[in-house]
Amino acid sequence: MDVAAVQSLLIERINSGVLVVDEECRLVYFNRFMESHSLLSASEVIGKNLFDIFPDAPKRWLQRKIQSVFMLNTPAFSSWEQRQFVFKMRHARPVTTSSEYMAQNITFIPICDKGTTEPDKVGIIVDDVTDVFFYQEKLKDTLTELEHVSRTDGLTKVSNRRYWEERFRVEFSTAQRHDHALSLIMFDLDKFKLINDQYGHQAGDLVLVEAANLVENLLRKGDLLGRYGGEEFGIILPNTNAQGAAELAERIRRQFSLLKMQYEKHTISATMSVGICECDSRFTRFEDMVTRADLALYQSKREGRNQVTIYQA
């Protein structure tokens, strides 16, 4: 078998798509890979315009790519990361991805007839990189999940203290810089140790989760609930003054006090004490607001629990 025959056999059997077009974008070659994945035979497509065969191909972009190869006589390349696919062909993977179509890397190669240096055809190589696409998707999903986990309290699924403080730092800086209202609600579940002692720690966990769920359902988009530690939570309220925060806090306190939580054969009720602090231009750190909201919370505790107190300087 001569060299030309070997080359032809390799191109025909290679596990990549190979098609060749002339300067009018007419197909002059279409290998077995392309036949198998496009469900079109070479005899059907040879001599026909590329864009009639692949009407979903990005025509203007692809024409520019092909013409640049003719004009510059240099190869060109397109990655699946720039454009997932050029030729719309289904992949045959048993795994599920977000797309049913083959992800492709495309290489454009100038082809010159023997004895000439100017290309009269362009070869297009289609590499199936669906596996890479799939694993990149999985990696991206995993990283997103890890980021979510790193920000979330494992029990209540609200923001953990680290992420909550990061967000509070940003909101505090924004409020101070633009003179926007900002309020903080800190609340603590009353006699929580007694619940743990009387019903067990799983019952205590249930109460924490129910409290977090109730509060989350009463917040606006942009408000942020976080578990500050133990049975204490904080709510960041951008563009909200102390009066607005107090109205929300009272609604939360009242609804939670009426909540009946079922644990095994027990019906558990609980209350919360709440402290509020509004941002002041004299504050230099978000921690100043936390300290003052906690002082107001402790005042609620001292005065009988199950109430809301606004910090007064």
Structural account:
Helix 8 crosses helix 9 (201-218). The strands form three sheets. The chain has a five-stranded antiparallel beta sheet with strand order 2-1-5-4-3. It has a five-stranded mixed beta sheet with strand order 7-8-6-11-12, with helices on both faces. The chain has 313 residues and is α+β, with helices and mostly antiparallel strands. 31% of the residues are buried. The N and C termini lie far apart (95 Å). It has eleven helices and twelve strands. It has two domains: 3-139, PAS domain (Beta-Lactamase, 2-Layer Sandwich), CATH 3.30.450.20; 151-310, Alpha-Beta Plaits, CATH 3.30.70. 45% of the residues lie in helices and 21% in strands. Residues 180-313 form the GGDEF domain. It catalyses: 2 GTP = 3',3'-c-di-GMP + 2 diphosphate. It is an enzyme of class 2 (transferase). Residues 10-73 form the PAS domain. InterPro entries: Diguanylate_Cyclase, GGDEF_dom, Nucleotide_cyclase, PAS, PAS-like_dom_sf, PAS_fold, Rev_trsase/Diguanyl_cyclase.
Into which percent range does the helicity of residues fall? Answer: 40-55%
- How many helix segments? 11
Q: What is the percentage of strand-forming residues? A: 15-25%
Into how many domains do the coordinates divide?
A: 2
- By CATH, the superfamily of the largest domain comes out as Reverse transcriptase/Diguanylate cyclase domain
CA(first)-CA(last) distance: 95 Å
- What is the assembly state of the chains in this entry? single chain
> Quick check: average pLDDT?
93
Q: Give the CATH class of the largest domain.
A: Alpha Beta
Based on helices, strands and strand pairing, what is the structural class? alpha+beta
Strand order of the largest sheet: 2-1-5-4-3
Number of strands: 12
Report the C-alpha radius of gyration, rounded. 33 Å
Uncertain stretches: none
CATH topology of the largest domain: Alpha-Beta Plaits
What spatial form do the alpha-carbon principal axes imply? elongated
